[in-house]
Amino acid sequence: MSTKPRVLFFGTPDFAVPILHATARIADIVAVVTQPDQPKGRGHRMAHSAIFTAAESLHIPVMTPEKLDGSTIDALKAFSPDVAVLAAYGLILPKALLDVPGKGFVNVHPSLLPKHRGASPIAGAILDNETVTGVTIIVLDEEMDHGPIIAQESIAIEPHEHRPSLERRCAELGAKLLEHSLLPYLDGSTVPRAQEHHKASYTRRLSRENATINWTDDTARIERDIRAYDPWPGTVTTWEGATLKILDGRAERYRASPRGKVGEVIMHDNKPAVVCGVDMLVLITVQPANGKPMDAAAFARGHHNFIGTVLTSE
C-alpha cells in the first residue's frame, strides 16, 4: 500500500504542467480537475486543456466539471484526499470544496505574496516595472490569495522579458518549490506563516480593452504593455484602417527637433520607430492583419508609405 499522500490536483494551462509533474513525483495524484474543453485556434475547434493532456499521459483520472457544485464536491470527497494542489485552475473555489481535503488546498501562486494578488500576477509584475518577482506556496482560505505562506522564492525579471518567458520560469520555480515544501507541510515540520496583509497589492483580469496602444502614453509604459500582454490580449494599433499588431519594441530616447506627431512613424538607426507621448518606441516585430509575424524593418521596406504615417488607437 502506498505511503504517499493522496492528492487532488486542480489546474488548467501550460503553467500548471511542470507543477503537476512535480506533484506526481512525491504524491499519489488520485484525480485531476481541469476546465472543460475550450475552442482554440482559427478554426475554433474544441481542445483539451494543457493539464488534461498532461494528466492523460500520466494515466491519472481527469474530471472537467462545468460547475463546482454539490455533486462535483461529493465525487471529489469519494477520493479521500489528504490534500489538494492548485495551480492556475481558473475558478474561485467554494468553501465546501476547500474543506474536502484534510490538509486543505495548497496553491502555487506566481508572485511574491502579498504583492500581486489576483488574476494576472505575472503581467502585473511586468506592468508595475518590477525587477524581481517570484513564487509563493500558500494554504488557500476563503479570501483571494490571502492564506498563510508555506514557502516563497524570488526570481529576477530579465530586461525586456515578455510574459511567456517569465511564466515558464515561474512554473519551473513553482514546481521545484512545491516538490521541496509539500511533504514538510503535510508532516507538520513546516508551519505556514501569515501574510503581511497590509502590504497587499492587487492585479486586474486582462481583457481585450487592454490591447489597444495609446501612443500618448510614456514609451516605457507602452513597452511594458507589449511585454505583459503577450500573447493575449496582445497590443495593437491601427494603420491605414487595418489592425497592426506590435509584438515587440524597445523604448528609446527621442531628441529630434522639430518633434514629430504622436503616433508618427519615423526612421531611427534604420529601424521604424513611433513617436510617443514621451520619447519613442523602436519597432522590432510586427504582424499585419491576416499576416504572419515579421521583422519591423522588413515590413517598412515592403511598405514604402509606412514611414511618415500616423498610427492611431481607432
Brief overview:
The chain is an alpha/beta fold and 314 residues long. It is built from 8 helices and 17 strands.
Provide keyphrases for this structure:
Methionyl-tRNA Fmet Formyltransferase, Chain A, domain 2, 27% strand, 17 strands, 25% helix, 314 residues, Rossmann fold, seven-stranded mixed sheet, alpha/beta, 2 domains
Question: Overview of this structure, please?
Answer:
- Helices cover 25% and strands 27% of the residues.
- The protein has 314 residues and is an alpha/beta fold.
- It has 2 domains: 6-203, 3-Layer(aba) Sandwich (Rossmann fold), CATH 3.40.50.170; 208-302, Methionyl-tRNA Fmet Formyltransferase, Chain A, domain 2.
- Helix 5 packs antiparallel against helix 7.
- The longest helix has 24 residues, at 163-186.
- The relative contact order is 0.11.
> What's the name of the CATH homologous superfamily of the largest domain?
Formyl transferase, N-terminal domain
Strand fraction: 25-35%
Q: N- to C-terminal separation?
A: 64 Å
Give the helix tally.
Answer: 8
Overall SS class: alpha/beta
| Cα shape | elongated
Strand order of the largest sheet: 5-2-1-6-7-9-10
Quick check: average pLDDT? 95
- Cα gyration radius (Å): 23 Å
Can you tell me the number of structural domains? 2
Q: Could you say what the CATH architecture of the largest domain is? A: 3-Layer(aba) Sandwich
Proportion of residues in helical segments: 10-25%
